[in-house]
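Give me the fold.
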Amino acid sequence: MEPEDLLNKFISYISVEKGLAKNTTISYKRDIVDYFAYLKKHFLSPLTITEEQITDYLWEKKLAKKSTSTIFRSQESIKGFYKFLFIEEYIKSNPADQLKSPKLEKYLPDTLSIEEVDKLLSTPNIEKIKGIRDKAILETLYATGMRVSELTELKTSDTDLDVGFIKCFGKGSKERIIPLGSKAIESIKNYLKIRKINKSDSLFVNPSGKKISRISIWKIIKKSANLSGITKKISPHTLRHSFASHILERGADLRTIQEMLGHSSISTTQIYTHVDKKFLKSQHKKFHPRG
């Protein structure tokens, strides 16, 4: 069987049977296509590869100065691919079964201060229809910490503004319910009064009445940051990180944050404890007489 046929079967398996999110599936496919290009260059077959040869591929990426997270993701894609081949009996033994995962560097996500968030969220001109929509989008992102891909898929039926909750579907189509703050509820209600009705029931739409795109939301945030004078590197994920770090600073526990962010593992959420320590250190330096 040709490598491309194996790849197509693998992608169908992880998207249909495993139910992985579209973006995750795209990442897996991109990683395996890159891996196949390496195999072709070295006249290797994916069905007869050895663990040592897979390691050589990962080392080549390291020598090319690829980040640890990129190498880790490539390795996980390859491990998933060979696990599939083994389960489906395309191979008799799994050459990637004992691959060691590289240790990921700890990093602090980019966050905004509460003052910066206030500036950002007050930027849209709510005298205009587009500004009312943009205000609702920014308030929702910060109030919920949801991913931009989750926000673009929201339906009007996913909101319960009387109770103050919103429903979204995260990675792997996992449903979760997130509380909405009073500011976000007010902004969404104002937006719904002037919003164009569209057949797909999308909550946030473009001027044509179609579902808003991720790129459009990125542009809204970038424009708002520029107008508010924020010079930090900013993206939709910045509001997600700011949401998590701010509620952690005020005493929310990691399990609660994990649930609201839709993390499958608490270890992913633990990165915010480093953000919190950074905040505590800054406060100690600011207020302690010998800080």
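Strands lie at 159-160, 165-169, 175-179.
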